[in-house]
Amino acid sequence: MECPAACPQSCYADCNSCKPVCVCSVPGACGDPRFIGGDGNAFYFHGRRDADFCVLSDRDLQINAHFIGKRGDGMTRDFTWIQAIAVLFDGHRLYVGARKTAAWDDDVDRLELALDGEPVRLPQEADAAWTSSAVPALSITRTKAANGVLVALDGRFKIRANAVPITEEESKVHRYGVTSDDCLAHLDLAFRFDDLTGDVHGVVGQTYRSDYVNRFDVRAAMPTMGGETNFTTSNLFAADCAVARYAPAGAGHHDDDGVAMV
């Protein structure tokens, strides 16, 4: 059921009750990157900066994420965030990314969108919508005038993506080490899947399986998923991770050149 027009903007796009729900707390959400699995449990997957990982892989859907990051003083691992995602479906390639940005301005759109290598351009106004002529079931709608979109493929998935920065205050508190030439613009994401198979895999995808068993230490402050090598892809548009399931019937060949990321 869709939220009615009167639903507040803070409401998650697929709510049934139309009560305000923060997208960071629903299954399929991910932030820094803190994920909420399909089973409703939160966990962290740090990956590594400047690398690509499979978020979800199913027979006819693959979602990969490009990680950026910084290593704070005295830290043994990178702080990481998702800068962009690639959505592979039915032989098509959808790109959603946050452009590298120095000083952040909420009114300046920093989202970059492309389908099969062709830019998707939306008027910079809330509720502006685009529907693909190549894929009529695919639509992208601005959830606000800048830096927020809802991507939907009818009967398959919905993805809410917001481009956000690391603020100076956050950097000081957590020692992220943000510099004046890069505010580490990244994506906050929320996924809704409607037609997954029982064999789905990936960092988040596996948590939607009926046989998934949560083995995290419930006492840990930051339950962290390992197995990085299982989810690594050779590039953002590749379905070649160790757990890849993506094999769309009748899909044509595409080269691996995607949207250049800065």
Automatic annotation (TrEMBL):
It comes from the Eukaryota. InterPro entries: Root_cap (IPR009646). PANTHER family: ROOT CAP DOMAIN-CONTAINING PROTEIN (PTHR31656). This is Root cap. It comes from Panicum virgatum (Blackwell switchgrass).
